[in-house]
Amino acid sequence: MSDRVLSDEEIAEFESFALEVPDQIDFASAEDVLDLIATIRDLQRQNAELRSDYQRMYERALKLHNQNAFMLETLETYVRECRDCKDGYIDGLRCAHCWTARETLAKVRGESVGNPA
Asked: Which residues, by range, are in coiled-coil regions (predicted)?
């Protein structure tokens, strides 16, 4: 399947051919050409809409990816800073907040974390 899109000039050329040379082709063939031209224009319109939808979805996915990367970086920073926490200990970690941050980071990474209790 070709990725080539007909230009408006090419479509107009086909259309004028179908309209200007009816004595060389029968009426049914001219109607078929006009139907084909209408189909091509409709497909090009749909293609433009799909490209617009794709671009919008791509930009949204990129924005979400960047937000997720920022949140992951923030969470990793929080977990690193929890090592200096002066609150009470829970199972080798400093405090409940630190444990929650560590557990959340592990879940995001697909790792398992033991229960602090």
From this structure: 33-60
